[in-house]
């Protein structure tokens, strides 16, 4: 790879990373010329939390790689913290939009950009200036499609009563389970036990309770990352199911451990919430891959 405006990975030295989070669902964002062949291993090493030998800051749930062909569009590529690829991420896209705003210096207090993902194009609107540590962003998450089949799954593995179960696909797969109280679920046990049914592809597992016509509670188990403080596409999936059951209206506040996001049910589904920028880091990918601090 040749060095360009985004930098490169693995041959000519340091790469800049920026830490972002959307409601505590956190990402390291890098702009490079092309997606690195060693992206999976870089994600595993860079995203590992300090207690697990991570090389950057507090670690992260995923590594977002942004590429931009001259005269072309931005492309969003996400590696989960376990190195697997994720097709799309609502929180990750909000953070990506924030990073693009900062990188491009877009003026006028807003950015409106359509980016390419493995799940297709997604439109991001960011309200804020390039220097803002926190911005508000809305992502058009696309149209919901049929989710993975789950006939035969043992829902008793959740160890709590399940009142409704449905799956959907927003470019990535989701199983939504309606319960009395998501906090009653031992997510570290129930999440992987239920996800194992969907091997080898995996599935995001969500435990949801409906508070009223405009509010639901969500605890997510994310494919490739495990327990996270929030899941943007999962918030959309949860609102969609509750809406299909007639339990909520078109606009839904989804309350998660890291905070609340707003979902507007439609075609496309629109997710709105914050992105918060943290520290910048410079790493040498060759050093990281060699097992030495970047």
Explain what you see:
This protein is of the alpha+beta class and 294 residues long. Helices cover 17% and strands 38% of the residues. The protein has a 17-stranded mixed β-sheet that branches. Strand 16 (259-264) and strand 17 form a beta hairpin. It is globular. The two termini are 20 Å apart.
User: What characteristic shape results from the CA principal axes?
Assistant: globular
Mean pLDDT score: 93
Helical amount: 10-25%
Task: Give the uncertain stretches in residue-range form.
Answer: 1-11
Beta-strand share of residues: 35-45%
Termini distance?
20 Å
Largest sheet: 17 strands, mixed
- How many helices does DSSP assign? 5
Number of strands: 17
Give the class from helix and strand content and strand pairing: alpha+beta
Secondary-structure element string? EEHEEEHEEEEEEHEEEHEEEH
Radius of gyration: 19 Å
From the structure provided, what is the oligomeric state, counting identical versus distinct chains?
A: single chain
Summarize the model shown:
With 294 residues, the protein is of the alpha+beta class. It is 17% helix and 38% strand.
Descriptive key words:
294 residues; disordered N terminus; single chain; alpha+beta
Strand-helix topology:
Layout: E1 15-22, E2 25-31, H1 39-47, E3 62-68, E4 74-80, E5 85-86, H2 90-104, E6 110-117, E7 120-127, E8 134-140, E9 145-146, E10 164-169, E11 173-178, H3 187-195, E12 204-212, E13 215-222, E14 226-227, H4 232-244, E15 251-256, E16 259-264, E17 270-283, H5 285-289
């Amino acid at each position: 790879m040749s060095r360009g405006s985004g930098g490169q990975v693995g041959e000519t030295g340091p790469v800049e990373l920026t830490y972002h989070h959307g409601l505590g669902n956190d990402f390291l964002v890098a702009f490079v010329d092309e997606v690195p062949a060693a992206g999976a291993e870089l994600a595993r090493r860079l995203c590992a939390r300090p207690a697990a030998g991570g090389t950057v800051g507090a670690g992260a749930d995923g590594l977002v790689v942004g590429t931009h062909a001259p005269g072309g569009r931005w492309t969003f590529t996400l590696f989960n913290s376990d190195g697997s690829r994720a097709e799309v991420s609502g929180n990750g896209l909000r953070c990506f939009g924030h990073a693009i705003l900062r990188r491009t210096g877009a003026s006028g207090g807003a950015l409106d950009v359509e980016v390419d993902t493995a799940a297709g194009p997604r439109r991001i609107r960011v309200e804020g200036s390039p220097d803002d540590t926190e911005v508000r962003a809305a992502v058009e998450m696309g149209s919901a499609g049929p989710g993975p089949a789950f006939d035969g799954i043992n829902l008793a593995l959740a160890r709590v009563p399940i009142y409704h179960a449905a799956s959907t696909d927003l470019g990535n797969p989701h199983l939504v389970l309606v319960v009395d109280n998501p906090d009653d679920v031992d997510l570290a046990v129930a999440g992987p036990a239920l996800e194992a049914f969907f091997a080898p592809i995996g599935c995001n597992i969500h435990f949801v309770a409906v508070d009223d016509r405009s509010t639901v509670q969500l605890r997510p188990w994310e494919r490739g990352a495990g327990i996270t403080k929030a899941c943007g596409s999962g918030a959309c999936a949860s609102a969609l199911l509750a809406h299909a059951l007639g339990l909520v209206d078109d606009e839904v506040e989804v309350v998660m451990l890291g905070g609340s996001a707003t979902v507007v049910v439609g075609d496309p589904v629109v997710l709105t919430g914050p992105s918060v920028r943290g520290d910048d880091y410079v790493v040498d990918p060759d050093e990281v891959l060699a097992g030495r601090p970047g």
